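Predict the holo structure. Ligand: (2R)-2,3-dihydroxypropyl phosphate.
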Amino acid sequence: MKSIKWPKHSILLIAIIATWIKTAITYHTSFEIDIENGMQEFILILNPLSFLLFAYGISLFFNSPKIRNSYLVFVSLLLSIVLYANVAFYRFYNDFITLPVLFQTDNVGQLGSSISEIVNWYDFLFFIDVVILIIAMIFIPKMEVKVAIRKNVRRAYFVVALAITFLNLGLAETERPQLLTRSFDREILVKNIGTYSYHLYDFYIQSKSSAQRALADGSELVEIDNYVQANQATVNEEMFGKYAGRNVIVVQLESLQNFVINNDMNGEVVTPFLNSLTKDKDTYYFSDFYHQTGLGKTSDAEFVVENSLFGLGRGAVFFTHGGNTYNSMAESLGNNGYFTNVMHSNNDSFWNRDMMYDSLNIDKFYDINSYTVNDENSVNWGLKDIPFFEQSVELMTEMPQPFYSRLITLTNHYPFNLEEEDQMIPEYTSNSGTLNRYFQTVRYLDESIKVLFEELKEKGLYENSIIVMYGDHYGISENHNKAMSMYLEKDEITAYDSALLQSVPLFIHIPGSGDGKEVTETAGQIDLRPTILHLLGIDTTNDMQLGADLFSDEHEEFVIFRDGRFVTDELVYAGETCYERTTGEETDMAACQPYIDRAQVELDYSDKIINGDLLRFYDEKTGNLIKNAVH
Ligand code: GP9
Ligand code: MN
């Protein structure tokens, strides 16, 4: 051995390579990570490397070989423990560890009690790199020579490490745009940035929110409560409780914007079924209704509707504040005897729904495991909407009544792919493939809603239900403005147009009621919670929420977007410009200013409630502050 001349830094190299290979093998053997193409595989294999280069590379700052080696062993041991903990956790929960889950003692307790199922005899292999490293240290004595590490070597090393990190992030960004700002799913994060970096990221997100939470004491609620009470819209006596006891079926329609309703595309009707509802005697169609979501997209829409609060300006509140105390619509309905559930055929960890739904007190999540999904009945992101509705209604027949089911569709999702057999109209003919295909998937979505109605009738669930349907957020982003201007026959899409294009349809369908008409009141998703609860006769006067009943005479025509834009019946504020609503002409900022200020106040109150987890200090039964809340 002595005769071999080992290159300098062999030990460091061995540490990196051993842990890298071990991690890559672990990805393939211990986690079920869906790989769709060669690029995803490449990113997966590459992703531990950038983290390891930094973590182990710090050893280059220690001049004493002893300290250097001890540091390397320490890091490899620590990373092995982290990886193994994830493997064990995954065997039980099918998910990666996230800090708040770790602190929920019952989770860890459950793990402890089933330790025999979780631990395998060969698990020592997860520490194999530590062993290799120690052996290498014994057999490669060259490293014992005391050499100071040259500065330029160190610099070159970190330049390479940085380059690999950027390569990794760049590739991940093309595979999954807005990966870090939106943070969809733990699996997707691990797939793209690796387990170790994922934990750093998770740690950063959690510590930021814990700090804000720790500093809050509930006193902030006094001011917010005053505002909420002062701005409450009185209930419409005639509508309050008119449909008490009915099942509530809320359908969140993926990416459905209002511009397709009662519109055609090259002579083809896009939404025949929804169009018929706009004239139906049992349906309220809200034609000036807006989404209020931010980066959390679908999950933000769910959040706004459940809580009548805004999502956050950064990231997805489902992820960042999944463990907060909320007073959701589901909780209110649950307290009033409803069986509450969400139906959506996707992994339960997507958008952190599994955790968030616990916090929202939703009784059951019918996730992908409740559905039969195969190659024939899925496309794009998963189960097609028609089989989704068919299977969902089947599941509803088993539910105790009254129930509150919130269904989330999937087929009309970017990139709007659809098999030929499901294409009921041709593509549009603009320069944007996205917009061209959008009409086809919207047409399919429309058909699926028709199927939903038919199935409900067939299963005897229709008559005794209220069906509320709305678009979750835009489907066509501003990247497709050119194609949109062609479709809408406009010279260009201005900030004013873009704001109005955030309109999504809302339908409140009440079978057999004779209640229905087109309502042009300007309103938003935040108003749904009180509207629905009031129809069922459930009081919301003590609720800490920012919405207003759509049937109230005091409902104000003012809808605030998450980014501070707003629309009223007279004004549009967008791109830091104040527009007259009817003409689209620029008008004096003074007209918009009072609304700009109020929008800021409401967004700020909502953020305060979420960041401080303030609802843990609030008793919605009495409307009192809870002093010394222990949480
Ligand atoms: C995922 C689905 C889509 O389960 O709800 O989320 P989105 O990308 O639209 O936010
Ligand atoms: Mn969505």
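The chain has a mean pLDDT of 92. Residues 297-298, 344, 346, 350, 408, 413 surround (2R)-2,3-dihydroxypropyl phosphate (ligand 1) (CB under 6 Å).
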